[in-house]
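Q: Predict the bound structure with guanosine-5'-monophosphate.
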Amino acid sequence: MILKHFTELQEFLLEPRNIVIIGHRNPDGDAIGSTLGLKHYLDKKGHTTQVLVPNEYPDFLHWIPGSETVKRFDRQNNQSVKALVKSDIVFLLDFNALHRVGTDMQRTLEEYENDFALIDHHQQPDDFMYMYSDTSMSSTCQMVYNFIEMMGDVALIDKNIATCLYTGIMTDTGSFRFRSTTSTTHRIIADLIDKGAENDRIHSNVHDANSYNRLLLLGQALSNMKVLPTYKTAFITLSEEEKRRFHYEKGDTEGVVNYALSLKGIVFAAIFIEDEEQSIVKISFRSKGTFSVNQFARKYFNGGGHDNAAGGKSDDTMENTIAKFKSLLPTYKQQLESSYEA
Ligand code: 5GP
Ligand code: MN
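A: Predicted complex:
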């Protein structure tokens, strides 16, 4: 755990400040939940805040309280830059390095003149003036709860804040099932329910928001799945053509990789998704047990993340990317075999 200059940050926040709060590119439930949860809290403390995200986020996150105030750097560029220029500090939430916001926004942030405050649970964070980094945490939302607690303000957590934080903890823990879910996570969740988070409604808002086409795309993904029993590995592909056929929208492929990991005996799962716009193949990796997909993604696919959930990308074709992936597996045969000794 790294906690850097927390007292100084606390003092800095004694006066009303202009604050920008940023989540990572392709924001997920934890990114949106943590940025908006922090926003509601800082607003209550008398600050002026603006949440910025690099690009669009899935429909099933748009119901989150405060979502209508979020600005997109790619679409609302002038307003975003203006907010940055007049801000006294920028909070970076749910990512560990500036490149995670994408090239354009990264360039702007690199010229930022005031200080950054990081709250994040990803491995190997870059250095910023103020830092709260803890890779053992289930989610950044859990850390925002802790942050508010360290500020002595748990009593300020209201229904809006509780709803935001509950959402991110829920999505980042796969509904409280991943190893990162501790008894403390559950205690915090219990407190958030006490403070007004309507758990049944939150689950339903996020998980029962499928479009018909999204389910058909899932069907296609599942029929594309390949299993490599020798390496306890399964992977899924989705081509640009398949995405088009089922009217792909942002967020439609979220969680699909977990179906590959749900196969009995599988400890390593991946999904490869063609992205014509960026001319890359975007990859998600998942594992069970000790096999670190963070290291794997970092070493071979220009990515990173957590030990059991990471992402990366390839500039090569789908075919070559899959060939490269398969060629790497023999090296890890032993690690994969012993990854999950149940
Ligand atoms: P997902 O596969 O759900 O997109 O991401 C899984 C985890 O890996 C998340 O914590 C996400 O922030 C991280 N991640 C996804 N893609 C990348 C990437 O390209 N680079 C890095 N460093 N992390 C990533
Ligand atoms: Mn997260």
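A: The first strand starts at residue 2 and ends at 4.
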